[in-house]
Amino acid sequence: MTAKVAILGASGYTGAELVRLLATHQGIEIAALSADRKAGMAMADVFPFLRHLDLPKLQKIDEIDFSGIDLCFCALPHATTQQVVAALPRTLKIVDLSADFRLRDPAEYERWYGQPHTAIDLQKEAVYGLTEFYRDEIRAARLVAGTGCNAATGQYALRPLISKGCIDLDDILIDLKAGVSGAGRSLKENLLHAELSGGTHSYSAGGKHRHLGEFDQEFSALAGRPVRVRFTPHLLPMNRGILATVYVRGNPAEVHETLATAYRDEVFLKVLPFGALPSTRDIAGSNFCHIGVIGDRVPGHATVIAVLDNLTKGSSGQAIQNANLMLGLPETEGLMLAPVFP
Amino acid sequence: MTAKVAILGASGYTGAELVRLLATHQGIEIAALSADRKAGMAMADVFPFLRHLDLPKLQKIDEIDFSGIDLCFCALPHATTQQVVAALPRTLKIVDLSADFRLRDPAEYERWYGQPHTAIDLQKEAVYGLTEFYRDEIRAARLVAGTGCNAATGQYALRPLISKGCIDLDDILIDLKAGVSGAGRSLKENLLHAELSGGTHSYSAGGKHRHLGEFDQEFSALAGRPVRVRFTPHLLPMNRGILATVYVRGNPAEVHETLATAYRDEVFLKVLPFGALPSTRDIAGSNFCHIGVIGDRVPGHATVIAVLDNLTKGSSGQAIQNANLMLGLPETEGLMLAPVFP
Amino acid sequence: MTAKVAILGASGYTGAELVRLLATHQGIEIAALSADRKAGMAMADVFPFLRHLDLPKLQKIDEIDFSGIDLCFCALPHATTQQVVAALPRTLKIVDLSADFRLRDPAEYERWYGQPHTAIDLQKEAVYGLTEFYRDEIRAARLVAGTGCNAATGQYALRPLISKGCIDLDDILIDLKAGVSGAGRSLKENLLHAELSGGTHSYSAGGKHRHLGEFDQEFSALAGRPVRVRFTPHLLPMNRGILATVYVRGNPAEVHETLATAYRDEVFLKVLPFGALPSTRDIAGSNFCHIGVIGDRVPGHATVIAVLDNLTKGSSGQAIQNANLMLGLPETEGLMLAPVFP
Amino acid sequence: MTAKVAILGASGYTGAELVRLLATHQGIEIAALSADRKAGMAMADVFPFLRHLDLPKLQKIDEIDFSGIDLCFCALPHATTQQVVAALPRTLKIVDLSADFRLRDPAEYERWYGQPHTAIDLQKEAVYGLTEFYRDEIRAARLVAGTGCNAATGQYALRPLISKGCIDLDDILIDLKAGVSGAGRSLKENLLHAELSGGTHSYSAGGKHRHLGEFDQEFSALAGRPVRVRFTPHLLPMNRGILATVYVRGNPAEVHETLATAYRDEVFLKVLPFGALPSTRDIAGSNFCHIGVIGDRVPGHATVIAVLDNLTKGSSGQAIQNANLMLGLPETEGLMLAPVFP
């Protein structure tokens, strides 16, 4: 017996990635797809790469009959999301991919997203969706808030180190390199091929990137005291993938051992042998995250490098992993696709 | 019950693509991997993107115990291949991805590949591996010769038209645009990122490309008389994908109708509505082939555009499709992965 | 003594390319820059790569004082252009980069651009800007209409062959591969890096591309009778460069000899040795056009391949070459920059 | 009157870049080109993008007549270089682009390059080629050692800060992103387009990159005590450009002011307004270096981001800048080419 799901916001990249992954999922069937501005269109006309699938037409959200639907993936912009989710039937399980329910503190939400939250009850109810660290809560949750893709990458590199207390909490630096699909299907000059290809630049540097809200919330909770990392994202001329170079003070061997132990039984989190350096090419299109650790020539410093695919493990793959838990399906169902190389 | 296979030449791109696709195949298990120069290494050290899989170590071919192996994928260079295959046990089914058994006429082989064939009996025995057109023979075959990736693309665009006789056989032109993975993992200056990215050029123009041997053989057999197409390949700054723009004389509507009818029941061959133009982005990483037809403003001319992924439908996906038939498995098993976009 | 120029439409790619090339031009000084929506901004804020130059601020067109300006480059969208140019002082020399004055026949303009021309007198006055073929007229012209970038590429490959009558005028096919900067700074989904990189597709196939208007006009005039080429453009994941693969019926050696002779004294048009195949990488960023000729294995067919940089020789470089002639400066001034490779 | 130069090692990327830049240089003429393995070939056959230039044939070094040559650019691999330079006439001025004469301490050379230096006298004689900081010495030098491209980028970001003492010398971190042309024309699998495009990875992390030898030498000399920076390079899917994200402890406004003051009169070094973030796209193909400074949300931390083109300002452009000084030519001659965008 398969579960029935709806995907709201199916005309964006994370929506399309959900469909791509569900195409070979044995336990989930797509029962409805929404895209307000493209309602009435076939999904194959919006994303011709999905032409081989037999999919429902795109609808407006309020045209969807949610009876018979078990779970709803919500891949809408933030702010819009909280209004939409508040209006959905309470019987529906929801995996949200937006930023709207990631931050538990309404003040923090307002600070990072520039407007008050309008669905504070839902915000409180939501479980943070970093699967490997919230498994039990996610299994029992009605509403799961998918993490930011950068936030996931940094947390995979750092959470076990902060929990164990083996690094200096006041000197953590994340220099992150991100592919462009993380910016979504936005029509901006700097996302044009002519402008983006062949070069790189940093953006939201100096502590302005919104995913810092998630780092602050999660790392502080783990440490039991405020933790404020430094974080500089860079945009790279590639479509998929995030590489986070995370600089910490600590014993490199202990850092490596801590991560290797923490993730020993995790199917999707692979800690490389000490000194091996991961590449985004090795996880593109998949739900895997590779993590490498190396010591610096300057004693007492270690570098942790984590890579994942922002659209998969950083977003839609994570969402399905969480949905699997919520629906009582095997956690890895539909997610064992190998990366695509070259 | 799963079939056991060996992959010879697992350190090249087509070998790695076989492993990628077999990773989620329900009916085939990889029992042995060979790579002579990298024997003794783990596959994950040669291709870290396959790190999550539990794979046999790379061996030399003569170290492999072929008892218990049902089928062997052979992804070796041409010339080497005929020697290796001749030495394999006759009880083994073989899907070859090289050029060695594609041409039935030894003189043609020598003409296009510059040396005499040394295993002429095998050459005669081999079945040409363009699945949709040789299904019955492939089901019964011991040795199947995978097609060239460019040759497959051109044939999908043209075979039904030649069979039906609805185009001028003396005025067929294939202008082909190919991604670089088709050139394999060869260390050549012009394949370096610094030299290839950002530009394009044609190569083997004017009738020199070896895949013309396949076009000549197959089209002439279909037509019952010699057919000699013109063929200009171009190398593009992209990794996967072939787009063949095929110019024919004929009635555009009839051309479209002929292709649509011929492929009506084919899972992997999708003929777009008349006038729609396919993109390689929509098939990358998958076993699908999209075909578009448009008429020219100059009456009596039609353009057929076919796209496929050279590593998948053009090579390793095709090989698995053939292996499925040879092993009595469902033809599409392991091959329904959606394309990866963006 | 240097000439003073204004550049209208300086916030687009061809405007920026004009500034790039004029930066090291010894005979021309930029006196005014316009960009209506960005008026008031510094050019360095619109195009930070021009930061090192001391440039006038962007203005609205009607704020520019044209007294003292010798020549005006007009890099505005078509339709807008004819209105703007009609309002400029008649004493001003004008090099237009838009499509508005390329077609001499108002009916043809309306047919290809979908609206009546509103400045028919100017249209008649304009000289077609393919420098090597209209040198004398350009020297004497007040208004020069720059060619389409695809139109330039195809004409460099074909004009001498048509003039000499050494090819079949009824069987000319141009399969063209174009980089994305030719589409301008337009905000369209299919021009995003995430969508364009890594793949290719054709567009405006079958006789719909507007540059066909130029081919028809020019080739028919040369031949003294209607000539209708077939033309299929493809968009490639590269920023600069056009490669036109032109298929003709004729004697390959004669085709080569005809082009080599015609361009013997041309600084910017380089005919390669017979059989050599050009690459867009070898002309990127420069005003050079490389042309190769090869014979086909099917007798009586030749392939001519021409490459140029759409922003330079196909547009802004051509414009400066024409401006040099109009201003009595050496034709190559400012245009001898070597291509940029890798 | 023009100076005559030879370029040894003209078949690599830095050699070709020298030729590209000298093509429009008014004071230097190329009198000889060497490339041992390609001796006898025309430069246009090795680098067709230089086809329009009238260049001497490639020779073996010992075939070159150095009489009449004023200056020699040496673009050979390290180790080979010291032997070649030792054998050149003492009357010849030399600008070396290799690593052989960058490190003044023979022990450091041996440590970083794995073999003893064989021309220690030349090593002592050589002046370090970071033009803006060694101008007087370079003017008077016979032998100038061009800097590493990464080393140049990091130094432009840091030297004034170290000199002034406004940052913590024990907490300097350079996270660097480099385009692939810096790896040269080497035939390595990971430099193939199929492997490099679309992804990123770090290399020589943890203190292993050879350019650390230069950082150590130069920063320690400036500080008057040992300085050991941390340095993690990453390879990006782009051909030209380096972006160094440099993390320092210090007052961000003071950091910005110090750099802006130091480079106020430098033509090629542009400090952006405080908070502005540079992009490699804005300097590609040029001799310019853009530097941005931003403060972190964590007080007391500043981030300096410097970008330059590794082949130009990081190597061949720098070499010509130095040659201009050595030959008594204007320092900027031939180097004012605008970047190429898009």
From TrEMBL, chains A, B, C, D:
<dbReference type="InterPro" id="IPR036291">
    <property type="entry name" value="NAD(P)-bd_dom_sf"/>
</dbReference>
<dbReference type="InterPro" id="IPR050085">
    <property type="entry name" value="AGPR"/>
</dbReference>
<comment type="function">
    <text>Catalyzes the NADPH-dependent reduction of N-acetyl-5-glutamyl phosphate to yield N-acetyl-L-glutamate 5-semialdehyde.</text>
</comment>
<dbReference type="Pfam" id="PF01118">
    <property type="entry name" value="Semialdhyde_dh"/>
</dbReference>
<dbReference type="GO" id="GO:0005737">
    <property type="term" value="C:cytoplasm"/>
</dbReference>
<keyword id="KW-0521">NADP</keyword>
<dbReference type="GO" id="GO:0070401">
    <property type="term" value="F:NADP+ binding"/>
</dbReference>
<feature type="domain" description="Semialdehyde dehydrogenase NAD-binding">
    <location>
        <begin position="4"/>
        <end position="141"/>
    </location>
</feature>
<dbReference type="GO" id="GO:0051287">
    <property type="term" value="F:NAD binding"/>
</dbReference>
<comment type="pathway">
    <text>Amino-acid biosynthesis; L-arginine biosynthesis; N(2)-acetyl-L-ornithine from L-glutamate: step 3/4.</text>
</comment>
<keyword id="KW-0028">Amino-acid biosynthesis</keyword>
<dbReference type="InterPro" id="IPR000706">
    <property type="entry name" value="AGPR_type-1"/>
</dbReference>
<dbReference type="InterPro" id="IPR000534">
    <property type="entry name" value="Semialdehyde_DH_NAD-bd"/>
</dbReference>
<dbReference type="GO" id="GO:0003942">
    <property type="term" value="F:N-acetyl-gamma-glutamyl-phosphate reductase activity"/>
</dbReference>
<dbReference type="GO" id="GO:0006526">
    <property type="term" value="P:L-arginine biosynthetic process"/>
</dbReference>
<protein>
    <recommendedName>
        <fullName>N-acetyl-gamma-glutamyl-phosphate reductase</fullName>
        <ecNumber>1.2.1.38</ecNumber>
    </recommendedName>
</protein>
<dbReference type="Pfam" id="PF22698">
    <property type="entry name" value="Semialdhyde_dhC_1"/>
</dbReference>
<keyword id="KW-0963">Cytoplasm</keyword>
<comment type="similarity">
    <text>Belongs to the NAGSA dehydrogenase family. Type 1 subfamily.</text>
</comment>
<feature type="active site">
    <location>
        <position position="149"/>
    </location>
</feature>
<keyword id="KW-0055">Arginine biosynthesis</keyword>
<keyword id="KW-0560">Oxidoreductase</keyword>
<dbReference type="InterPro" id="IPR058924">
    <property type="entry name" value="AGPR_dimerisation_dom"/>
</dbReference>
